[in-house]
Amino acid sequence: MKLPNESWLGRQGGLALLAALTLSVEPAVPAAVFAVDPDRSTITVAGSVAGLAVTEQAPGSLSSRFEGQLVVEQTEQGLVFLTDSRLRIQDNGSWEPAAEGQPGREPAAFGARISGLLLSAWAAGRNLELSVSSGVIPLVGDEFDAGQVLFFFPPEGDAAVDFRVGGLFPQGGRVPLQGGGTNLVQGSGTLRTEGDVQTLTLPLDNTFLVRLLQDNDTTLIIRGRIVATRQLGSGATSFEDFLALHFPGETDPGIIGAEADPDGDGIVNLVEYGFGLNPTSPETGFKPLELRRSTREMVALYYRRPAGLADVTYPLYESADLRSWSRRVHFEAVRDLGTGWEEVEILLDAPAEDRGRFFMVGVQPFP
198: how many CB neighbours lie within 10 A of its CB? Predict the structure, then answer.
C-alpha cells in the first residue's frame, strides 16, 4: 500500500491512518487541551505606581474572570504546560481613561485609580491575555507545584495599560505589557478525574514590572485561580452513538461522514471516535503511538483508546521510508485503566537495520 503524502494520513480512505513514528526518535506526547471555566476562574488585580497603591475606580473594577484554554502534556514524569495556552481576562466594565490615555471611558479588563499628594492617575487594562510555560512538573497523587508555572504576556499579543495622569504634569498614553512575571503562589495545583471529566486547577500570584512614567515604577499583581476541564472520552460505544452525541439531528454527510473532518484538525470522524476525541474541537499535536521501550531485541509501542468499541479495529502498519506501507502482524496486551479507557501495549521484534523504522496505527470499521 502506498500513501501519496503525509497529509493524507487521517484524511482519506477507509483506513483513516494516523501518526507515523520513527523508532529513532521519541514521539511527541499528545497535548491535552483544557477549556477554562470562567465561572470558576476568578482573578483580582493589585499593584502600585511610584509607591502608591492602586485602588478601585468603582466596586469590582479590579476583579474579573479568565476564559480560554490551557494546553498541557501529561507524561509519566509529570505535567508540562505549553505556550499554546491562552488565558484571556474578560472585560468587566467601562473604565477611565479611553484608549491611548484619551479622556473618557471604554471597555477594559480592569480599572484602577492612583491618588497621592502630587499624583492623581487613572489606568485601564485592555486586551489582556496571558500564556504559560513550564518544565516537567512532577504530579504527586493529584497535586503538583503550581509555583513552577511561568505566566507571561505573549510577544504577539496587544495587551496594554492605558493611563492618564493629572496633577502638576498631566499626560496620558498606552504602555504595552510584555514579558514574564514572578510567580509567588504558595500551594499546589491539582489534576483530578471524575468519571470522564478531567479538571485542572491552577492558582496564580504573579507580579509584573511595568514602566508607566519611568523604568519599573509600576507593579501589576494578578492573583486568582484557573479551573479548566476536558472530557476524556465520548462515552459512546458505537460510531452511530458517537455521531448522535456530538451532532444531534445532523444529516449532512460532509459533517457526520466517517471520513468527514468538521473541526478541520486533519483527523476524520472515524479516527476521532476510535481514539475518544471530540470531533467538534480541533486537536493539537495528536499522535496516538508512544514509544516507551526500545532495545536491540524488542520495541514496545503504546496507545490509549476508549474501552468497549466493538465496531472498529486498530491495524498496525510499518514502513522504512514513509511511502510504502505494509500491515504488521503483532500481538498486543490490553490493560484496563478505568473510567472507560484502556491502554494497548504492542511488542515487536526490533528491526535488524540500523536505519529508523516507522509505524502507524489505524482505525478501521469492523466487520
Answer: 19
Q: Which amino acid is at 338?
A: G
Q: What is the chain's alpha carbon radius of gyration, rounded to the nearest angstrom?
A: 25
Q: Give, in order, the Cα–Cα distances in Å from 334 to each of 233, 277, 304, 339.
A: 17, 19, 9, 15
Structural domain containing residue 153: 32-231
Cα four-point dihedral sign 269, 270, 272, 276? positive
Say if CB 208 and CB 233 are below 8 A apart: no
User: Whole-angstrom Cα distance, residue 30 to residue 50?
Assistant: 46
- Cα dihedral 329, 331, 337, 339 sign: positive
- Domain match, 253 and 305 both: yes
- CATH number at 335 reads 2.60.40.10
> Distance (Å, rounded) from C-alpha 105 to C-alpha 307?
55
What tens-digit pLDDT sequence spans the chain (367 residues)? 332 222 223 322 233 333 333 333 333 344 678 899 999 999 999 998 888 899 999 999 999 999 999 988 877 788 999 888 999 999 999 999 999 999 999 999 999 998 877 778 899 999 999 999 999 999 999 999 999 999 999 988 899 999 998 766 678 899 999 888 778 888 899 999 887 788 999 999 999 888 776 777 888 999 999 999 987 655 677 899 889 888 888 999 999 999 999 999 889 999 989 988 888 888 877 778 887 766 777 788 888 888 888 899 999 988 888 888 899 888 889 988 765 678 899 988 776 555 667 888 889 998 7
Domain-located, residue 1 = no
CA distance 207 to 200: 22
CA 100-103-108 angle, to 5 degrees, is 60
Do residues 344 and 303 make contact, with C-beta atoms less than 8 angstroms apart? yes
> What phi, psi does 215 have (nearest 5°)?
-55, 130
User: Helices marked H in the chain — which ranges?
Assistant: 239-246, 253-256, 269-274
Residue 286, classed as helix, strand or coil, is: coil
CA–CA gap between residue 98 and residue 364 (Å, rounded): 57
Asked if 253 and 190 sit in the same domain, the reply is no
